Amino acid sequence: MSGDNTKPSDSPESDFTKQWPSELSEYLNLDDDQWSYDDLDSFVSGHVFSHKTEANEVGELGGSSTHHEEFSIRDDGNEHEKKEVRDRVAFKTKSEIEIMDDGFKWRKYGKKMVKNSPNPRNYYRCSVEGCSVKKVVERDKDDPRYVITTYVGTHTHPSYN
DNA sequence: CGAGTTTGACCCGCGC
DNA sequence: GCGCGGGTCAAACTCG
Ligand SMILES: [Zn+2]
Predict the structure, then answer these.
(1) What is the pLDDT of residues A88-133, one digit of tens each?
(2) What is the CATH number of the domain that holds A154?
(3) Residue A2, in any domain of the structure
(4) Ligand 1: distance of its center to the CA of A154 in Å?
(5) A17, A25, A43, A89: least surrounded by Cβ within 10 Å?
(6) Rounded to two decimals, what is the model's pTM?
(7) Chain A residues 102 to 121 with C-beta below 7 Å from nucleic strand B
(8) What is the DSSP string of A13-24?
(9) Structure-model confidence comparison of residues A156 and A67, the more confident one
(10) Is residue A129 part of a domain?
(11) Residue A47, pLDDT above cutoff 80
(12) Which residue range is the domain that position A94 belongs to?
């Protein structure tokens, strides 16, 4: 335990900032299920949201988050938690790669082709047990150079950043 | 060896 | 009642 690998300023924490170009990140408007792409363009043009997020990743980035708190514990013999207790946060980031790490470990669990779009949709899930946060990454159909990342759920564990 | 990733198949809800 | 779509899980493979 003596100093054998002491790294004073070589921590990976700096990676976090350099991985997410704030100037290249934009705010995406998520309205239940319908987003106005045209309107969105105008929004991101001069509309930045100062929303507080559950995670410390967004920082000054803006994000549309929809929090639905609904708890209906039904012990009738059916454990089908389908309530909208998942917060959906959509982000539009300008990047050619979508495998950026946001401080959490994600495990891909599905890839699907989006109809009317030549780009596939990737489904990711938090690797932490007990954490059922989902992440969906998809390329913009109108702007392939942009990537839309949608976070669903809330982490039940502290980020390993 | 383990975890993560890959692709296909399966499942369920909803629409008509 | 059946079909379709979207979404999810699982097995297998790969990489470190
Ligand atoms: Zn998590």
Answers:
(1) 777 877 766 767 677 889 999 999 998 887 889 999 999 888 888 8
(2) 2.20.25.80
(3) no
(4) 7
(5) A17
(6) 0.67
(7) 105-111
(8) HHHHHHHS-GGG
(9) A156
(10) yes
(11) no
(12) 89-160
